[in-house]
Amino acid sequence: MEQKSTQDYLKAVYSLAKNGDKVSTTQISQKLEVAPASVTEMLKKLSEDGYVNYSPYHGSTLTDKGLQEAQKIARKHRLLEKFLSDVLHIGKDKVHTEACRMEHALSDEAEESLCRFLKHPDICSDDGKTIPACDLPFSNCEECMRLHSQGLEEVGKRKEHLVALSELKAGQTGKIGFIRGGHTVLQRLLDMGLTPGTKVTLIRAAPFEGPIEVFVRGSKLAIGRGIASKVFVDTHTSELKPE
Amino acid sequence: MPFNQTNKKINHKNSKHITIALAGNANVGKSVIFNQLTGSNQIIGNWPGKTVDRAEGTLHFEDYDITVIDLPGIYSFSTFSMEELVSRDYIALEKPDVVINVVDASVLERNLFFTLQLLEMQAPMVLCLNQIDVAKNKGMIIDKDKLQEALGIPVVFATATRGEGIYEVIKEAVKVAEHKPKPKNLRYRKELEEKIEQVKHSIEKENLQLQYPARWLAIKLLEGDSEITKVITEKSKALVDSAKMAARELQASCQEPCFSVIASERYALASSIAASALQQSEIWSTFSDKLEWLTTHRVLGYFTSAGVIAGLLLWTFFVGNGLSNLISNGLSIIRPVDPALSVSQPILSIILNGIWGGFNAGLTLIIPFVIPFYLLLAIVEDSGILTRVAFMMDSAMHKIGLHGKALIPIILGYGCNVPAIHACKIMETRRERLLAAFAITFAPCSARTIVLFGMVGLFVGVQWALLLYLVDIAVIFALGRIAMKAVPGKSTGLIMEMSSFKMPSLKVVVKQTWARTKSIIYVVFPIYIVGSALVQALYFFDVLTPISNVLSPLTVWWLGLPVAAGILFILGTVRKELIILGAVAIFGSTNLALFFTPIQLVVMALVAMLYIPCISTVAILGKEFGWKATAVITAANIATALLIGGITFRVLTLFSS
């Protein structure tokens, strides 16, 4: 039970935090339907374990370690939701609770197979949220499919921790680490200079899930939110200095 | 090749003929250079069998007769779009004597990516660094010699909007065409280069008899380019297989698909060349930063966007109205349709009311509205403001399966649907072009606006006319959503370059306005004149009354209109204003309130706005999308008009009783 609630908390903070905003204890207690006192207690514990930055009365944010853990569980959750609703046609009302129960038991290997089976989906059909990137060491999905078809099992893990371009804050820079999607999307992005390893800075994001404007290779590009959520960047490499 | 048939071969004595192609990304000022070079000697048409614009012009320079081809603005030679295919086939197969690669100096790196692809094709080239002024304003200093040396081709600085550098460009181009210097072979990373060489050797051994350079073919095979793979499979299946093998090996060592490795390599090279030739100095906040803030702010941006669109329409309406009155009052030769003639003197009526009347209607109704609209649009477009409006409106456009860029043709549709449907080419896929064109067929063009204000605004009230305008926008939105669900396929997302703000050049704006207006004159005027004469003839021979009687269950019972409405709707298919002119002719008075109730006027105008795209629109739809799609769009228009018209009639009757 202990581990399950850690993951649930991290997931709650992750889904509540928009653009890196701090999440209040009240928000978490409402989301998880737990008493605020227990939330505070749990946040302190998570803070000790290095998952969240917790300061009383100011709210909490995820640390890198926490974010990584939260993305992992959110990825499993959203993939499961997609599978349950699109493949098994389970009713919308049941999908979320069902996925909540299953996510903790889903192994990494099963998660990877599920992703390939669903043809590397980018958004969850239940709530339209971006499915975080996997932690396989590929810069695109074609490579994953190719190696899998050759029966390669041990491919190791990605070293960098990636976030979707659409989730960057204004002024934040990241290095492209992974692009999700098939040939056409990839080709379009490559042609516009969004090749793996390229530095991209978010200038602004239009409201209402509108496009984002980025600075890349000395010019500005507008990229629709849908495509931007297929591009994953590493915001922590040492090469990156604020520009 | 078919292109050659259209090439105008002028043979002055002792003069030599050369062909120059202009190639480059979108929005780099290629068309401006094209216009500077060729002036009025232009032929604008389509590439054979393709719905891609083809602009060709001629000029005489020193001892040379030069044909200039303006290729479409593209970012790459992958076969993502028709434009890319047309351009690369032209350069590879037609082999122009020289290619002028027009480059936006302020975004050097991105532009050089395309330059490298041109170099791969081993075309004789001149690099024209355009918009040098914009680059300077951004604090960029470019070292011409370094760039020249790195690329191995002549480089010329230009600011085309001011005519600077045009002479030098053409001079260099002629020199290259004359001496055909062998372009330097730029090399990529060793791993990739080895594979390219390997495939190139097998290609050379096979002796394929293809027009394309071997190295370029090798790169395309490695990229897995579908067109080239198809062409070579026909010649040698083994070659394709060995290339595939090489690509797989490269993919395994780089852990990336081969096309991605190659694109990355090109960008890496472009980046290092740009870095070596470019000096960036500090820039300070400028006017354009403020404009950027105003147009893309999360709240203000929407007001600005709405203001731009509303301003464009209001400006068109008021200036258009003024101009229209000025022309019709100022020129006494222009005479309104005389209904009395239709009855007494058929031949004279066909000539005067039909042919001459059609011409006058074009002159007084279309030109005054279309010119101010296109003028302001060109300014908004050229300055870079429209790009920001498209950026802000992207999420709204997604609701109808389109993205922000589609806003540009749809706004054009408010002027006239014909060029708007033509402009749908800026969209990436056929599905998006079709969805945008469908939305445009409901956009209240200037002709529909005239019907709306002439019937409802004048006799019922301006607020009612504005209300119907809003209804129309709601209809565009609702039907766009239905169409999005009905047309199979997925929406592609927006990827658009946010070009820098610039002061629009008067010359460019005027040229663009005139080009658009001209295309309307050519398409619309003949249809006006013929259609108008035909209608007069039909009217005289009394063909219309039986048809209108057949239609009466729809017009009288369902829509609650007079029987004559059937005739008017038939007239309106030629052009929507004929509904008003026809009503005047039939009832013999300009005071329509005498013959229609206010409800009838509202329903009539509403149905008139929606019921069918006019003949010119149908013609361009057919040309761009085929007759099947056109039939479906037309049927959807008629069904919508009948549905909404019938409901409006019943609702209004209920409320007024």
Task: Describe what this molecule looks like in 3D.
The complex is a heterodimer of chains A (243) and B (657). Chain A has 243 residues and is α+β, with helices and mostly antiparallel strands. Chain A folds into three domains: 2-62, Arc Repressor Mutant, subunit A; 67-132, Orthogonal Bundle (Diphtheria Toxin Repressor, domain 2); 162-234, Ferrous iron transport protein A (FeoA) (SH3 type barrels), CATH 2.30.30. Chain A contains nine helices and eight strands. Chain A has helices spanning 2-16, 25-32, 36-48, 64-87, 92-102, 108-117, 141-149, 183-191, 225-228; strands spanning 52-55, 59-62, 162-164, 173-179, 199-205, 212-216, 219-223, 231-234. Chain A has a six-stranded antiparallel beta sheet with strand order 3-8-4-5-6-7. In chain A, strands 1-2 form a two-stranded antiparallel sheet. The longest helix of chain A has 24 residues, at 64-87. By secondary structure, chain B is α/β, with parallel strands linked by helices. Chain B folds into three domains: 3-179, Rossmann fold (3-Layer(aba) Sandwich); 190-280, Helix Hairpins (Orthogonal Bundle); 300-656, no CATH class. Helices cover 65% and strands 8% of the residues of chain B. Chain B contains 30 helices and ten strands. In chain B, the strands form two sheets. In chain B, strands 2-3-4-1-5-6-8 form a seven-stranded mixed beta sheet, sandwiched between helices. A two-stranded antiparallel ribbon of chain B has the order 7-9. In chain B, α4 (108-120) links the parallel β5 and β6. In chain B, α8 (190-206) runs antiparallel to α11 (237-254) and α9 (214-223) packs across α11 (237-254). Chain B is elongated and about 85 Å long. Residues 1-12 of chain B have low confidence and may be disordered. The A-B interface holds A 137-140, 142-143, 146, 183-184, 186-193, 195-198, 204, 206-211, 213, 217-228 and B 75-76, 78, 80, 106-110, 113, 251, 255-257, 259-260, 263-264, 267-268, 271, 274, 296, 298, 301, 387, 390-392, 394-396, 398, 403-404, 491-498, 500.
